Amino acid sequence: MTGRVVLVITHWLDPTADFVVAELSRRDVPVLRFDTADFPLRLTVTGVLRGGWSGTLRLGERSASLADVGGIYFRRPTGFEFGSMPPAAADWARAEARSGLGGLLMAQQRWLNHPHRMGYAEYKPVQLAAAARAGLRVPETIVTNDPAEARAFAAGLEQVIYKPLSPAAPPGPGDISMLYTSVVEPEHLDADGDSVTATMHLFQERVRSRHAVRLTVVDGRMLAAALHPHSPAAELDWRADQQAVSYEIVKVPAAVACGVTGLMRSLGLRFGALDFLVTPEGEWVFLEVNPNGQWAFVEQATGLPIAAAIADALSGEGGLP
Prior knowledge:
Low-confidence stretches: none
Mean pLDDT: 92
Number of strands: 16
Number of domains: 3
CATH class of the largest domain: Alpha Beta
Strand order of the largest sheet: 14-13-12-15-16
């Protein structure tokens, strides 16, 4: 490959990344897509230090020079694969790969987003506090494993909801892949049970709303869609019943846009998928920012040019660093 190449690091069955690769290809921007699982069986890497790092990434007949990397889109790669290597040796090789290949990549500058920034921003307590400092309204929130504290918090509110702190779902029957927002009933906070004491929980006031908003931000460009619920499940959490959601392009209020800009800056993010609720009075209430969130479904439903905005950011065509 020649010219400023974009690296797309994700698993091979990632339809969201497909949108970006297609847009970059349409612009004749060179792309090298790979998964970290391609290393070392399919991906060969060399780095040479001469002032800065030079060298190559080679996947089959495709290759890219480290010196020519103009942007890196970090999506959802899977782990290194070492074939039939004994487990103890694989553990060592995995640590070396992370430090070597990971280190060469971390030395690059133009990430969307940098993995370390994403890891920091994914902490819900961090992003909620940052949003409040940026002037966005945030629901009343408690994070605890103390049932008494949870009950006292709930007693002062009309209704309380529970939201998971991480994307992971607990093990159990039914192959649950995601936990959705749920209403907290009094028995859930029973001091005699272990539902609260077992680990940390996030409880929030339930914000009454007329609809949700998914706001995708790319290098300061804001692309917002209202998500109108048409079922009780979608009203509580639109992800739980996406078939019962309709979409509408909306404008971001100036005060919200200012707060979002401050939030993204404080978290060091160039990209984010932000969720809001809009109250019956029209106030936007911040719920969360996902620094690696899904957005293709919004583009498909509304035509918002999110893939084009991401391609601009990765190729430098948007005029931002």
